[in-house]
Amino acid sequence: MVPFRHSLIFLAALGLLAACDNSADSGNQNQTALPAATTQTEPDEPEAAADNAPAEDSEPADAEQADNSVAFSVTEVTQFDAPWAMTFLPDGRLLVTEMAGTLRLHDLASDNTGTISGVPEVAHAGQGGLGDVLLHPQFENNQQIYISYAEAGDGGSGAAVARARLALDENGGGTLEDLQVIWRQTPKVSGDGHFGHRLAFDSDGMLWITSSERQKFDPAQDMNSNLGKMVRLNDDGSVPDDNPFADQGEVAAQVWSLGHRNILGLAFDADGKLWIHEMGPKDGDELNLIVKGENYGYPLVSNGNHYDDTPIPDHDTRPEFKAPAITWTPVISPAGFIIYDGELFPDWQGSGFIGGLSSMSLVRVEFDGEEAREAERLELQKRVREVEQGPDGAIWVLEDGTRGGNGALLKLTPQG
I need a labelling partner for 47 at 20 to 30 A (CA). Which of 170, 219, 391, 414 fits? Predict the structure, then answer.
């Protein structure tokens, strides 16, 4: 691995912080040197037999770009129980989802963590549980937020997205009021893997939902299902008239693109282009530029193989399918994604940052129009589940504690 010119620092006394609520004095936050990286051999999702394979970290696609690395420090801020996603409120407080079904509100100024009640019943098993949390673009006027989660039902389980009004109280908590489910994966199926359910709004106020194929393969190509698809909706869950398959009606009308596997990150660049990453099968993680109506080929093509080593034809054998901008073999097990536009790290403006579970890193990606390449890896020795940009331009990371609790909220700032 090419060495990087940065310093990784975190709180040494991990056991002193509570796994869920944390009311420790913020003065207890400190920084100590992190040891050198070690090889990660744990699957990205240990509960699911058919998720990304274990893999060693691979070299950056263009290793000499490591010379552009920025010196940074990492501070552990607090702990959560298997955290999955986060978003900042306008007042600087942080909403964090925990997979078992708890929505937390963390006050960074006081280092207090409260609970938001009113979350619907969550099917917490395997990769399923409470997922993403997102503010409406007009949140300051309407206080609406969106959450995604796995729910049980006829036939098994599936992802759902609900919107509600966030009512905060004076005790550092609050509740979700007038909750309404606006979207569901169709159909519900057996198993506890590949829900996806990452959320984002674009500059036009359209809601985008990643809907993974639930480890069922074929639904990714079936327009009678919204599994294995990128979904685009109005903010109330209705279908925009200009969706590419709107004239087909039913569930197909929701679909913007198809042929996806397990999408766990999406972000818009400065030009409004949508980029997503997908966990490949055995090898072949992908970064894709999403184009209206395109088919990305899974499970008919992939740059990885099935877990029993049955070959899958590569993308270049089927040019009718949209090929990825980047493929990772060995895998990085991507989760969480931002495209940075802050002032705190000026050298990183325009770069994408992808969390890595098995790679235990942040993977920095540089873009050039419709092309992309890996620039470097920022070694964290933590399973990075989520990445967000803070109001001050800091980069915030949730590491999930290997899904056994004791996950942590980390803050990346320039060193010095």
Answer: 219
